[in-house]
Amino acid sequence: MNKASQTPLGWPVLLFVTANFVSNVGTWLFTLASSWLMTELDGSALMVSLVQSASTIPLFIFALPAGALGDIFDRRRSLLIAQAFLTISTAIFAYVVYCDLATVQLLLFFTFLNGVGAAFSRPVMAAIIPQLVDKVHLRTAVNLGGISFNLSRSVGPVVGGYLITRFNIALPFWVDAATFLAVLIYLFYWRDDRAGIKDGQQPPLTLAIGDSWRFFRYTPALRHSILKAATFFFASGALWALLPLVARNQLSGDADLYGYLVGAAGAGAVLAGFGIGRLTSGIGANNVMLVASGIMSVGLCLLGWSTSVPLSLVFSGLCGAAWQSAYTTLMTSAQYALPRWFGARGMAYYIMSISLCLAVGSALWGWIADLSSLSVGYYSAAGTLVVMALLGRSFHLDQAKDVDLDAASESLFDYVEKKDNQTTIFSLLAVKYSIDHKLREELLQRLTSLRGSRYRSGSLRRELYLSEDAGYVKEHVLIIANQNYSRSRFQTTAHDAKMEAQFQSWLKEHGGKVEKEVLYRS
């Protein structure tokens, strides 16, 4: 599936979205059935909310190594293993529930296992989207994926509630195990076309994770997107954490009503998905987040107040619309900041942030609801969301929307000689800059501004030295130069190469000189 042959929303994207839709329907069956099962095993708000915590904690723990594996190895193989694991673990739990052997401990354990499988799938699945479309169509593709996800949220819970009410609570788990086959079939035909995957020139896992941390730290566009996501999802997670108890206790309903409430949220999300592109173009991504946070706050308050089923369905749909608007806006902003070779690792940080917020937030809102009431739990979450939205205004989205993150044709690190043997690990590149002493302060400032570029391109450590007597500035950059993976490490983006070219042009214009040498190898 070559990128050049794709239309903006061609068959590769549509097949990917369809496979995800079927799989996500099953995921929502599992989510609804496990939450409802907990209300039967232990109906306290804290225990019900811990179901969501158990499913999201593994994402926080395993998403980063899973993302690193997805970037340095064949994504297809990683996903095949993860989907097979999910199929088996879900089928085993379905059998446990069918035999009426389920306990609180087993429910949380298998929910945790489901989260582990999701942790090794979601960062990689999210990173596939930019492989299927050009950057100009990325928001459309992400939004289509979000619509598909929320359409599954409309269908899955309704079907799950019906299956539980009309048949038995084990059936949704059986169906979930079967739906993973949709992704397996898609993966059978899909191929990972990234350069460097098949020739073995990839870094070890530990270095890939270290690279990802430096990339995250020195990429404000990604960091702001993730921090902004935390300000929204920490409090918004109360919607899903307490909704089973709204259906059971506040509205005196059964599993099918819970399914309708979740389905209404999904329907609201689908409707919002069709208008989010125009809204973002009109008011900008940062203002969309303020609107989404305001709507979610109002929706949570109304859900905590309402004892009417029709009104609660409307309010749930309102919250779903806010959730989808925030999801598309935040996900797109994060994707804009990621070159292809950091896609899965970058999305891992995004998923880790959301998962931690949902895990901790869900337990917190459940604990508050146990201490007081469901209404107070929702009111507390709504108030927290307003405060965090205001505090998060300094985190700006879409910073990398117009930045060229394709691989550059050359890099500063190209100077490092590639030896035939594979014993060399570290190389210290020294670059000496000589210029008129009157421009030395400006030279230091310009070199300092390149700090993020050096680390994003693969530097392990970078230091600047000013020699007042000799009249020059030295830059020391520690890099990895092992032949096995040097090519993949020196992935400088066109944006960073342009910054370097502008610096070199300024240096040449003012009579500056550059000397390079490799001080040592080890």
Walk me through what this model shows.
There is one protein chain. This protein is of the alpha+beta class. The chain folds into two domains: 16-191 and 201-394, Growth Hormone, Chain: A (Up-down Bundle); 412-521, Alpha-Beta Plaits, CATH 3.30.70.100. It has helices at 11-41, 45-72, 75-98, 104-119, 122-132, 138-166, 171-189, 205-217, 220-236, 238-250, 255-283, 285-305, 309-336, 343-371, 374-391, 440-449, 451-456, 486-489, 494-509; strands spanning 426-434, 461-467, 472-480, 513-521. A four-stranded antiparallel sheet has the order 2-3-1-4. Strand 2 and strand 3 (472-480) form a beta hairpin. Helix 6 runs antiparallel to helix 13 (309-336), helix 9 runs parallel beside helix 14 (343-371) and helix 10 (238-250) runs antiparallel to helix 15 (374-391). The longest helix has 31 residues, at 11-41.
- Count of domain modules: 2
What's the CATH topology name of the largest domain?
Answer: Growth Hormone, Chain: A
Strand content: 5-15%
- Gap between N and C termini, in Å? 41 Å
Secondary structure: helix percent? 55-70%
What kind of sheet is the major sheet?
Answer: 4 strands, antiparallel
Q: What is the 3D shape?
A: elongated
Distinctive features:
522 residues; alpha+beta; Growth Hormone, Chain: A; Alpha-Beta Plaits; four-stranded antiparallel beta sheet; 19 helices; 7% strand; elongated; disordered N terminus
